[in-house]
Histidinol-phosphate aminotransferase (Zemynaea arenosa), 364 residues
Amino acid sequence: MSNFDQLIANTIRPDVRALSSYHVADNVGFIRLDQMENPYELSGLLRDELAHRLANAMLNRYPVPSPNELRAKVCAKLGIPAGYDVMLGNGSDELISIVITAVTKPGQRTVVMAPVPSFVMYQRSAQYAGADFVGVPLKEDFSLDRDAMLKAIEEHKPAVVFLAYPNNPTGNLFDKADVNAVIEALGDTGLCVVDEAYEPFAQTSYMGRLPRYPNLIVMRTLSKLGLAGIRLGYMSAAPQLLAEFDKVRPPYNVNILTQTAAAFALDHLEELNAQARAINAERPKLAAALAELPGATVFPAAGNFILFRVPDAERATAKLLANRILAKNLSKMHPLLTNCIRVTVSTPEENAAFLSALQAPDQS
Ligand SMILES: *Cc1c(COP(=O)(O)O)cnc(C)c1O
């Protein structure tokens, strides 16, 4: 086969050909403050115990298709309301895709809606599934534009609306009254996914409102809590809804190593929660130091990251890169984010390195 151009043009969808792959910066040897990872590792004792458990995992067998024990543990440890179950995913990314796949009707216009700027996978997954994505701009202060959302819901009749709470990349929590208005406007015509990837830091949740709102789905992940490497997301919703999503879920979507490591981590949740508290304690210090930078604006942050604006984000990230520090320049993502940088809150040492790189006078 020599003419791949022809082969690809004949087989691969035009919209897929036009895409670029999800880009992650080459990060070996860098201080990584661009992906909201937890900088802390498990303590030595826990690692040894985990190694033992993983060594006993039955790698020769297919994993349990829907691990009852792990689900029960998630429900018990992570505040799932009585009478509600969870569905597990290979990261919450997979759950986003499962929800969208379940609502997208072949040959009919299906709309997936989210405020913008927000988490990019909502739009990406919608496109892969063949749904139309409608993005509703946030206000200048990154609050939800309630009137615009309600108008867009009326006009486009979305099958599902995604609200990241707190929002990524802006970092803020939307006003509860605005979120409630969106869920209520959708009523029995649309689902609302409240994506709580940063709940361990925000310490506020819609989980308790599941009984009140039949169309509500609450989604979370262990990634930002310190287990990004194992890929485990979970979502809860009314059992009737979960039963439908379960039909779309690939049968062995959570592998045995992930199941084992997740069960272990939940048995030692206190260690992860303590790490989250340490990160939360650093957040206001980092925010205050950033606010001291000449011309900087720091936005309210409820997750393990801070969004801030500087006079020249290109220059600031270049200075960071020269010190082998990664943070995300979001200028190109959305006009509201011009000259905005998103930085993960990390250890006191890494935060200090980040600040001193930014504070250093410009070369030239
Ligand atoms: C990081 C993030 C996710 C992805 O979580 P995974 O479980 O690692 O796939 C989902 N939603 C939001 C808003 C995020 O920021």
Observations:
- The domain at 59-267 is CATH 3.40.640.10 (Aspartate Aminotransferase; domain 2).
